[in-house]
């Protein structure tokens, strides 16, 4: 077997949550650990790819052979993704915050003791995956992730169409909670659904690299 099936390919991976500041000491975040995205970046490098990992704030070590760019917010992640192009494939694993604080305060919001509760207005973040799908520099293979709690396949099919990507890797986060060590994924594409057994995140990543290598070889032999 070919042990470096992604040799000569350039892969872009996003991973982790984003943090959206409210004031200098507070932020909006989510439960993404970054483990699946980092495992994917690691597996891509092992498979011989040149890998650029745009990572939200997570305390994980950079996998060997991976070039990592740390970001905090969705807006920063969008800019680094744009700057990283072109790529043969992009795998958007990050759990990007849907909303950020509409205005970030320069000073800490103080509790004044009167019982006044400050309002928190939100603004919509850019959808990085959907933006990439429409971009002139769209990677030939564009992969999104979907963490769902119900109707996993139906939601993934809808997401595939809405986002304009080629595959959605969907998983049920009520069966495999965010931050855990395993995932049971369904790869949804225009060709149908490929459902895998529950596997450690590293095994999901390695299997996904084989599938990506096969797909890239079909379109343009390396
Ligand atoms: O429907 P949802 O936005 O949760 O879809 C998740 C997929 O979209 C993931 O691949 C995620 O990385 C990507 N995404 C993004 N930018 C956003 C929101 C989600 O790239 N603002």
UniProtKB/TrEMBL annotation:
Residues at which CTP binds: 98, 108, 126-129, 145, 159, 163
GO cellular component, one term: phosphopantothenoylcysteine decarboxylase complex
Domain (DNA/pantothenate metabolism flavoprotein C-terminal) ranges: 7-214
Domain of life of the native organism: Bacteria
Swiss-Prot/TrEMBL cofactor(s): Mg(2+); FMN
This enzyme's EC code(s): 4.1.1.36, 6.3.2.5
UniProt-annotated stretches for the region Phosphopantothenate--cysteine ligase: 11-222
Keywords in alphabetical order: Decarboxylase, Flavoprotein, FMN, Ligase, Lyase, Magnesium, Metal-binding, Multifunctional enzyme
Single GO MF annotation: metal ion binding
Reaction(s) catalysed by this chain's protein: (R)-4'-phosphopantothenate + L-cysteine + CTP = N-[(R)-4-phosphopantothenoyl]-L-cysteine + CMP + diphosphate + H(+); N-[(R)-4-phosphopantothenoyl]-L-cysteine + H(+) = (R)-4'-phosphopantetheine + CO2
Family assignment from sequence similarity: In the N-terminal section; belongs to the HFCD (homo-oligomeric flavin containing Cys decarboxylase) superfamily.
Function in brief: Catalyzes two steps in the biosynthesis of coenzyme A. In the first step cysteine is conjugated to 4'-phosphopantothenate to form 4-phosphopantothenoylcysteine, in the latter compound is decarboxylated to form 4'-phosphopantotheine.
Name of this protein: Coenzyme A biosynthesis bifunctional protein CoaBC
Chain's gene name: coaBC
Range covered out of full length: 196 to 417 of 420
